[in-house]
Amino acid sequence: MSTDFWSPLKLSIEIAFVSGIIVIVAGILFGKWMAKRKFKGKLFLETVLLLPLVLPPTVVGFLLIIIFGKNSVLGSLITWLFNQPVMFTWWAAVIASTVVAFPLMYQSAKTGFEAVDEDIENAARVDGANEWQVFFFISIPLALKAIVAGGILSFTRALGEFGATLMFAGNLPGKTQTTPLAIYMAIESGNMSLAWSWVICMIGISFLMLLSVHLLKA
């Protein structure tokens, strides 16, 4: 197959991989922090963290443009630091994928940490372990299945991101044109055989990812 066929697939996997790493780290930290902690405003904060899960992708893309656009404070700072805006770049696609995939990882990690027996953590503290040691050697191993499942689901979600990426990162072949965008363009141009090839690849990858989650929980 031609390079044009593999380019969107390669780009999608690269973007999903990078955003997956970001999401896993952020999801573990937020999930652990929110798991058994009670404070005023927790419900509001958790709702905000989960909001991208239910918002239309176009709304997420619009908000990213407002936050990172060249007229925003953050957008202007990025332009000043890197001498170019973040919009319509590879990193814009990573940001869009990260935002939409984060709720899946956060919810899974939080559920895993909530299931950890506090008596085991407290026993480690009594034996002299500090909070970071308890976190890395007790909490994470005991919640590992949920964390891995969340990571796989987040990667799969990032792989299939379309709406927010189109609005925030654009559809630039070889730069921001991921497989979902390439499928859309192939259908628009009437190239159904190419569209079907990409669709089959995406179904295959997604099927294997979901199957691995079910096998993990078995």
From TrEMBL:
<keyword id="KW-1003">Cell membrane</keyword>
<dbReference type="InterPro" id="IPR000515">
    <property type="entry name" value="MetI-like"/>
</dbReference>
<feature type="transmembrane region" description="Helical">
    <location>
        <begin position="12"/>
        <end position="31"/>
    </location>
</feature>
<comment type="similarity">
    <text>Belongs to the binding-protein-dependent transport system permease family. CysTW subfamily.</text>
</comment>
<comment type="function">
    <text>Part of the binding-protein-dependent transport system for molybdenum; probably responsible for the translocation of the substrate across the membrane.</text>
</comment>
<feature type="domain" description="ABC transmembrane type-1">
    <location>
        <begin position="9"/>
        <end position="217"/>
    </location>
</feature>
<dbReference type="InterPro" id="IPR035906">
    <property type="entry name" value="MetI-like_sf"/>
</dbReference>
<dbReference type="Pfam" id="PF00528">
    <property type="entry name" value="BPD_transp_1"/>
</dbReference>
<keyword id="KW-0500">Molybdenum</keyword>
<keyword id="KW-1133">Transmembrane helix</keyword>
<keyword id="KW-0472">Membrane</keyword>
<feature type="transmembrane region" description="Helical">
    <location>
        <begin position="88"/>
        <end position="106"/>
    </location>
</feature>
<feature type="transmembrane region" description="Helical">
    <location>
        <begin position="195"/>
        <end position="216"/>
    </location>
</feature>
<dbReference type="InterPro" id="IPR011867">
    <property type="entry name" value="ModB_ABC"/>
</dbReference>
<keyword id="KW-0813">Transport</keyword>
<keyword id="KW-0812">Transmembrane</keyword>
<protein>
    <recommendedName>
        <fullName>Molybdenum transport system permease</fullName>
    </recommendedName>
</protein>
<feature type="transmembrane region" description="Helical">
    <location>
        <begin position="43"/>
        <end position="68"/>
    </location>
</feature>
<feature type="transmembrane region" description="Helical">
    <location>
        <begin position="134"/>
        <end position="155"/>
    </location>
</feature>
